[in-house]
Specification:
The complex is a heterodimer of chains A (440) and B (158). By secondary structure, chain A is mainly β. Chain A has one domain: 6 Propeller (Neuraminidase). A 5-stranded antiparallel sheet of chain A has the order 1-21-18-17-16, with no helix packed on it. Chain A has a 4-stranded antiparallel sheet with strand order 3-32-31-30, with no helix packed on it. In chain A, strands 4-5-6-7 form a 4-stranded antiparallel sheet, with no helix packed on it. In chain A, strand 25 and strand 26 form a beta hairpin. In chain A, helix 1 crosses helix 2. The longest helix of chain A has 16 residues. Chain B has 158 residues and is mainly alpha-helical. Chain B has one domain. Helices cover 71% and strands 8% of the residues of chain B. Chain B is built from 6 helices and 2 strands. In chain B, helix 1 packs antiparallel against helix 3, helix 2 packs antiparallel against helix 3 and helix 3 packs antiparallel against helix 4. Chain B starts with a strand and ends with a strand. Classes of the chains: A mainly beta (440), B mainly alpha (158).
């Protein structure tokens, strides 16, 4: 046991002493358009509860509701974070690991590094930072062949297909590969579309990617470099933004800003409305600030870092910006605090019951920054007339086992058969959820 | 006429610990004062670099304060001279400063403004006052103890 581990353990004990999980807040009040927001609180130390990663034992699976079936379609991967379903039924799985460590600007960073390493432990020792192709060769709907499509990427996350062009959002650039659906190889080397904010810190490193229906614009989510600007404004250039990129020229502009860590960029089916799920800020208490799903309005400001959920000012940020706070708009739908939503897919299939049509599946990576864990599941939120309604339904659960995590869901997708695909990064598995009795 | 009595410090532990303590003790005092200065700089500028400085200064100060505290306890056990009345005052002030600055370091782990204003700054002021009180009491310890020798303890007897 090295000194750092000991220090961190002592810290955790101190935390347990400071915050003994007396969290009586009703989480169900924090779903939907008008979440309850308790007063900000911070004990001497922020509450944490890091799940040790133990992985899945053979035969173990997450739990799905009655009438559904879940099975692993790829195991032994190395940190699968995202998945793209192609129109021919193939799946592209993005294996991704951030390289390099963040600079230690303050003693706290050491502890944070340890927490993050533990929460992401067991992320596979094999090669990562590549795109795998999963293919169903025998027509049962379940992929049975696996090959490497693209290798040697730099912490890729976003992936989008536009015609015969495959776009990959590495952590530091958008790349374009010529690719014909059905091929097992890309048709040539990568062309760089544009650089993306990365740099030495690169704290929120996942760059989510979506293409407009006509393929004329790309949208990329760039997370902040800090919790609430505590690394200074210069570290946040073009961050906490969704950027709109012209794929022909690589020119980009800010589409929307003040989104702390936007992921799961997806256009609502049959519309030009862009949706995202956003990881909100930490250390204001276990029930602040709710993470959210929202449609993204062009030019809009969503609060970070100066305020949250509209005009709730974050007192930690100086200098304050009342002008921006005034303009901050409220997101559409709160997901409750610290669930860490990273994946979003609208149900476009037909093999699930009718109520699922057009609704949202969200991969919640799970909390570590509150005493009582939250997230660690895939939830479903019903949509009516293109708007989320009601409370979320737990759809894929039991990623946790006691104090440990067997896996953590990230990217979600709907495959050609209408099955839900879930990338489970620390579980090193890709899951497929089908409706029982549905023909694939 | 008063008579000057020379007490020989018999404990070799006390003779070894005293100069070590005098070497260690100033370090946290200086670092805690510096942290107050950088806190003030942060409160005036809101420039995050000053907050990072404060955190490192407090962390470094605490490391040396704990080392010094251990040596001080050893000295207290070993040396009769330091257990004179003012020695206890020194110990109380120094330990109080250590505890206040420990809480201060935890408050300083907050992100941004509330790491300093108002709680962190208040604790920095309090910790600095206590550390300076510890300095003042140290200077009033029996003279030979302070003079790096810790060999003898002079007492003026009536």
């Amino acid at each position: 046991m090295n000194a750092r581990t000991t220090l961190a353990m002592v810290t955790c004990l101190a935390l347990a002493a400071c915050q003994s999980g007396h969290d009586n807040f009703d989480k169900s009040t924090q779903y939907g358009p008008d979440p309850q927001l308790p007063a900000p609180s911070r004990a001497l130390l922020p509450g944490v509860n890091v799940s040790k990663v133990i992985g899945w034992s053979p035969g173990e699976t997450p739990t799905v509701p009655q009438g559904f079936k879940i099975e692993a379609i790829a195991t032994g991967l190395s940190n699968p974070r995202n998945v793209l379903a192609l129109p021919n039924g193939d799946l592209l799985v993005v294996e991704s690991q951030k390289n390099g460590k963040e600079p230690i600007e303050r003693p706290k960073r050491k502890i944070m590094d340890w927490v993050e390493a533990k929460a992401h432990g067991g992320s596979g020792n094999g090669p990562s930072n590549r795109i795998l192709l999963l293919r169903d060769t025998n027509g049962d709907g379940k992929p049975d062949a696996q090959s490497v499509l693209i290798d040697k990427l730099n912490a890729p996350f976003g992936i989008a297909l536009v015609g015969d062009q495959l776009y990959i959002a590495d952590t530091d650039a958008i790349l374009r590969y010529p690719y014909k659906v059905g091929d097992t190889k890309v048709g040539g080397d990568a062309t760089k579309v544009c650089d993306l904010p990365a740099g030495a810190i690169n704290h929120h490193w996942t760059k989510s990617l979506a293409a407009s229906a006509d393929g004329s614009k790309l949208y990329v989510g760039v997370g902040s470099n800090s919790n609430i600007l505590e690394r200074g404004t210069s570290a946040e250039m073009n961050r906490a933004d969704i950027l709109e990129v012209d794929p022909r020229t690589g020119a980009f502009s800010v589409f929307a800003h003040g989104l702390r860590n936007p992921n799961g960029l997806t256009f609502y089916p049959g519309s030009d409305v862009l949706w995202t799920v956003v990881n909100e800020r930490d250390e204001l208490g276990p029930d602040l600030v709710p993470d959210y799903m929202t449609s993204v309005k062009r030019g809009a400001f969503y609060g970070w870092p100066y305020s949250y959920w509209g005009q709730n000012v974050d007192e930690r940020v100086r200098p304050q910006r009342p002008d921006l706070v005034k303009a901050a708009i409220k997101p559409d739908y709160a997901l409750s605090s610290h669930v860490a939503p990273l994946g979003l897919a609208f149900y476009t299939g037909s093999s699930f019951p009718a109520q699922f049509k057009g609704g949202a599946f969200i991969g919640e990576h799970g909390s570590w920054n509150r005493p009582e864990r939250n997230g660690y599941k895939v939830v479903f939120i019903k949509f009516e007339n293109g708007k989320p309604v009601g409370q979320p339904m737990d759809f894929v659960t039991d990623f946790l086992k006691g104090p440990n995590a067997r896996g953590r869901p990230v990217g979600v997708a709907i495959d050609k058969t209408g099955a839900l695909i879930v990338a489970d990064d620390v579980g090193n598995t890709v899951w497929r959820v089908t409706a029982r009795g549905a023909s694939s | 006429m008063a008579e000057l009595i020379r007490h020989v410090e018999k404990s070799s532990v006390a003779r070894a610990a005293a100069p070590l303590y005098l070497l260690l003790f100033p370090v946290p005092v200086v670092l805690f004062i510096a942290a107050l200065v950088t806190d003030i700089a942060y409160a005036k500028s809101a420039s995050i670099t000053w907050l990072n400085f404060s955190e490192w200064l407090l962390a470094g100060g605490l490391v040396f304060a704990v080392l010094a505290a251990i040596v001080l306890i050893v000295e207290f056990c070993a040396s009769r001279a330091i257990r004179a009345g003012i020695g206890w005052a020194h110990l109380v002030f120094f330990f109080a400063a250590l505890i206040v600055e420990l809480f201060n370091a935890l408050i300083h782990t907050r992100d941004g403004w509330t790491a300093v204003v108002p709680t962190g700054m208040t604790l920095s002021i309090l910790g600095t006052i206590l550390a300076l009180a510890a300095v003042a009491t140290l200077f009033r310890l029996p003279v030979t103890w302070v003079a790096h020798r810790a060999v003898t303890h002079w007492e003026v007897l009536p």
